[in-house]
Amino acid sequence: MADESPVESLSHVDIGFGGKYKSGFWAPVAVTLLVGSEQSSGELQLIAPDGDNVPVVFFSSQGGSRVLVTGLGKGSDYRVFRSYVKVGPQNSRLSARLVDPTSG
Predict the structure, then answer these.
(1) 38 secondary structure, DSSP code
(2) Which of 9, 11, 69, 103 has the highest CB neighbour count under 10 A?
(3) Neighbouring C-beta atoms of residue 97, cutoff 10 Å
């Protein structure tokens, strides 16, 4: 049996209110992950540039910085995690990563 990664892919990210947000202000972010059937925990991190284009790491607001990625044991499922970021310039890039707590 092949090892199955608990997180198969990042499905999509919604930012702001109806996709609208203002530079320099806090905005809600919803990250949708496609997860496999295995259970795993990690740290969901969002990376966004500040007003000076310096990358800043923001953590999930659910249960501190640790999130639990859980599959239902029947193939794939979607999980949504919510957080907030202070958005830099309008055309900047927002990145998301799930960090393994054991290996960093």
Answers:
(1) S
(2) 69
(3) 12
State how far the alpha carbon of 23 is from the alpha carbons of 32, 35, 61, 83, 93, in Å: 23, 31, 20, 17, 12
Tokens at 58, concatenated:
């923001």
**CATH number reported for the structural domain that contains residue 47 in this entry:** 2.60.40
Distance of CA 50 to the CA centre of its chain: 18
How far apart CA 43 and CA 22 sit, in angstroms, is: 26
pLDDT tens track, the chain, 104 positions: 344 445 557 778 889 999 899 988 999 998 887 777 666 667 788 999 988 889 999 876 555 445 555 555 556 677 788 889 998 888 888 888 877 767 75
